[in-house]
Amino acid sequence: MHFDQKTFISAGVMSAMFLGTPVFADVGARDVWESWRDYLAGMGNEITATEQEDGNTLTVRDLIMNVAMPEEEGSVSISFGEMQFVENGDGTVDVVMPNEMPMRILANAEGEDVDAEVMIGHTGMSMVVSGTPEEMTYTYNATQMTAALAKLVVDGEALPDFDVSMVMDGILGRSRMAMGDVITTEQKMSVDSLSYLVKGEDPAGSGSIDLKGSVTGLEGDATGVIPQGDYGDDPTAMFEAGFDINGTYTMQGSDFSLNFIEQGAPGAVSASSGAGSMALEMNGSVMAYNGSVTDVQMNAMGPDIPLPIDVSMGEFGYGIQLPLASGDAPQDLAMNLKLVDLGVSELIWGMFDPGQVLPHDPATLVVDLVGKATVFTNLMTLDENTTEVPGELNALTLKNLQLDVAGATVSGVGDFTFDNTDMVSFDGFPRPEGALDVKILGVNGLMDKLVQMGLLPEEQAMGARMMMSMFSVPGAGPDELNSKIEVNEQGHVLANGQRLK
After folding, report:
1. pLDDT of 465-481, one tens digit each?
2. Of the candidates 373, 390, 251, 246, which has an alpha carbon nearest to the alpha carbon of residue 322?
3. In the predicted model, is pLDDT for residue 18 greater than 60?
């Protein structure tokens, strides 16, 4: 079961409108209601409701939104019950929503008919709308918001012992929405804590799941441009119409624990982390995302795991940037990965190093690449079955390579450009030109220890040393090797000035 793009965007808009704005110009109760209604209907959703005006209050009853899933896989129906839009007399409007709102999901997931009802609730919510009919700001806060599974029926069979719930505490935020041919949004939001629970048993009695988790100190800052219209069947057209989202999100910490039984055998997984962040940018020109999390602890054991796994990391980071739009000029691309102070328990070390021959220090891997590429065909329109080459690589820079493991280190930087008119010199790959500088410390000592432990045959170690001697020269320190790999404009490959190709 999955949701299409319009479902995702509609849910985001409702979240912003659940929660509202400072005093600007005048906005009326009907302005707020019609803005919401027209936007949701413009996304291809079916909206039904009855309206009644009484003085400064517009009451909307029996408000139901029906969202169709793609490929006729089902629908989502959200009933808001009764809502009131109350004019305050100062150009602002209070939006009063019921304490509980049912959301019904009818879907076909992997051949199974699913009928689920989720109850959404809140306490201490305040939502105020201000601005103008064309540009409204929502200022909101809530003591708590909840979502809980009230009913789950699969292929006509009720699953009574299945619990799914989420609780958010301490919600505060502000959202601005400007209406036009496109919807422009700006949102800032914070949540003191978020907790979730999934617990249930397989009706056949062969397994169970008990998952609990929480996230603290959530903050988000995002902007978006969302074209009006139904793009569920053609997301490419949505990007061409100006779809653009950009957001950054941070947290102070997280944890979860999972206990399960599978085919009668128990297992458990737990994890925790410190501060983390994530950033996302997506539009017709670029897709970029990056994130990091610190102080990671992970533990796992189960029927298919021969011994408990205990892993820690000081930092885990990742990032990617890809150009999407076609053009004549080279565009930026990037990729990075960071695993800092990756450690495992002594129990795991003891499996292959019981004599503690190797240093058991945490390992580190850092790879940071940037480059340029020319895109021939808009990647959003590319057919997944095509054999067409969508672009060419123009330049690649290794800003940082770092590998520290078992007492050996490898570091390097490099910079190359690529001649795409020469696809012969390197067998179908554009000819590179540039250099890679690498420094290796402690690798001979590491191989000696691996041979001592019986993990590396002597003849393979000898072959590796001969290979390294071809590509490197001794450095200034003990067990230090340096290597400079160059490719010149003639396509010659040189190692420390000696031609290899």
Report:
1. 998 888 899 998 899 99
2. 373
3. no
Distance (Å) of CA 168 to CA 64, 123, 143, 258, 381:
24, 11, 8, 20, 39
Q: What is the per-residue pLDDT for 13?
A: 43
What is the rounded distance in angstroms from the CA atom of residue 66 to the CA atom of residue 72?
13
pTM for this one? Answer: 0.84
Beta strands in 21-161 (DSSP E): 46-54, 57-68, 74-87, 93-96, 100-109, 112-123, 126-131, 135-154, 157-158
First-to-last alpha carbon distance for the chain, in angstroms, is 54
* Cα angle value 139/145/150 (rounded, 5°): 140
Return the closest-CA partner of residue 297 out of 287, 288, 309, 307: 309
* CA gap 459, 450 in Å, rounded: 12
Look up residue 168 and give its amino acid. M
Between CA 125 and CA 172 the distance in angstroms is: 10
* Domain locations in the chain as residue ranges: 1-179
Ordered alpha helix ranges (H), 49-142 = none
Write the secondary structure of 187-217 as one string of H (helix), E (strand) and C (coil). EEEEEEEEEEEEEEECCCCCEEEEEEEEEEE
pLDDT tens-digit series, residues 290-343: 999 999 999 999 888 878 899 999 999 999 999 999 899 999 999 999 999 999
* DSSP labels, 286-306: EEEEEEEEEEEEEEEE-TT-S
